[in-house]
Specification:
Layout: H1 6-13, E1 17-21, H2 28-34, E2 46-48, H3 52-59, E3 69-73, H4 81-92, E4 97-102, E5 120-124, H5 130-133, H6 139-148, H7 152-157, H8 160-182, H9 188-197, H10 208-215, H11 219-231, E6 235-240, E7 254-257, H12 266-289, E8 293-299, E9 305-312, E10 315-322, H13 331-337, E11 345-349, E12 355-357, E13 362-366, H14 367-374
Parallel strand pairs: 1-4, 1-5, 2-3, 3-4, 6-8, 10-11, 11-13
Antiparallel strand pairs: 6-7, 8-9, 9-10, 12-13
């Protein structure tokens, strides 16, 4: 199946290089190879920095001849990768397209060298969402996505045995390969511990003070480690949205995982799935349309909270509340709709109820329908 970014990548390659970032095993290589008409990793246009022979060839400045599209995979692991890519592009841009893929934030790992500003478009590939799987998703689609997550391999296998083995292998690769190759971190065992405790913090305010106690490290160290995992697309944090005329709570952030299937609590897992879909929407609109997009939440000094608010160009676009079951309208939506300028509220759930409440600018609807509104 074509991924949701396939058309966008084809269009952007006609203008500039394309940087494709995203979590390890989210399907970047498969998507890239599909642009070579279904080729595999042996295709001469696919060049992986993890291969020793390819590294030597790239450092000598050699590229395969007569290839319209060159794929450079994981090249950001090289300290001077931006200078190297800049040289390839500047010498070959009239005849060759370049697609750069990596399992880390390619906009973050610059590591010296000349800027590539103006030479590339940056796109972020996310796991499967309901809409990407099926434009008219079913309850079965939702249940499978909640159980196995949105990463292609475990989802398509839909086997608990395979899922457990895949989880162990992926965590090991993120911590023991990606992290060590990109960051100066010696306390690998404590990073393993951090990865184990984060799923229990999903959907809650992430207190770095509490986390530093669990890990027996300084505040700055704990915060840096979480940031590293964000840069490797393991987790993401969202910050509170400041609303006029309301006293906001402290500026602490909420935490979510790119792979929500690791979250044991069902309610938190559902909330994480919604958070991931909203982040996917924000990244797509930002990467493709150029708008400044932010995923935030609302929490006032009295503890009233809206799970999410999507902000476009510094203005709230809509807010979202998550509920497992079909219920009446959230009191928090009723409260904030009377006191804020948020134009639209959605209360999403796992049932079938779909009603409009015009007086609150709100709609109660199933996540299967809401995914079609986001359309990514």
């Amino acid at each position: 199946m074509d991924r949701y970014l396939t058309v966008a990548i084809r269009e952007d390659l006609e203008e500039k290089m394309v940087f494709l970032g995203g979590p390890r095993q989210v399907g970047k290589t498969t998507l890239a190879l599909s642009l070579l008409e279904g080729a595999n990793e042996t295709h001469p246009a696919y060049l992986s920095w993890d291969d020793a022979a390819t590294r030597k060839s790239l450092l000598s400045g050699a590229l395969p001849s007569a290839e319209r599209l060159i794929i450079l995979d994981e090249i950001h692991k090289y300290r001077q990768w931006r200078n190297l890519v800049k040289g390839f592009y500047d010498l070959n841009k009239s005849s060759t397209r370049f697609l750069i893929t990596g399992s880390a934030r390619l906009d973050h790992y610059r590591r010296g060298g000349d800027s590539l500003q103006g030479r590339y478009h940056y796109l972020r590939l996310h796991p499967f969402s309901l809409h990407e799987l099926n434009s008219s998703p079913t309850q079965s689609d939702l249940e499978l996505l909640l159980q196995y997550g949105g990463f292609p391999e475990p989802f398509l296998k839909s086997s608990m045995r395979h899922w457990k083995r895949w989880q162990r292998e992926r965590q090991s690769r993120v911590i023991h390969e990606d992290l060590i190759s990109l960051e100066h971190v010696k306390e690998v065992s404590q990073l393993d511990l951090l990865v184990q405790v984060l799923p229990d913090r999903v959907g809650s305010i992430l207190s770095i003070n509490n986390l530093k106690g669990d890990l027996s490290v300084a505040f700055e160290t704990a915060d840096r480690w979480v940031t590293i995992l964000e840069n490797l697309y393991y987790c993401f944090r969202i910050q509170p949205h400041g609303l006029p005329k309301l006293r906001a709570a402290k500026k602490e952030k909420k935490l979510y995982l790119w792979d929500w299937s690791n979250v044991e609590n069902e309610s938190a897992r559902f909330e994480n799935l919604v958070a991931a879909n909203l982040l996917k929407y924000c990244h797509y609109e930002e990467d493709r349309e150029g708008d400044q997009m932010e995923l935030q939440f609302v929490r006032d000094s009295q503890g009233r909270e809206l799970d999410f608010v999507v902000v476009r160009n510094k203005k709230p676009e809509f807010a979202v509340e998550c509920r497992m079951g079909v219920r009446s309208l959230s009191r928090n939506i009723a409260y904030f709709s009377a006191r804020t300028n948020i134009p639209r509220y959605y209360q999403v759930h796992m049932g079938n109820k779909d009603v409009e409440l015009a007086q609150f600018r709100a709609r109660i609807l199933p996540i299967t329908i809401f995914s079609g509104i986001l359309a990514v």
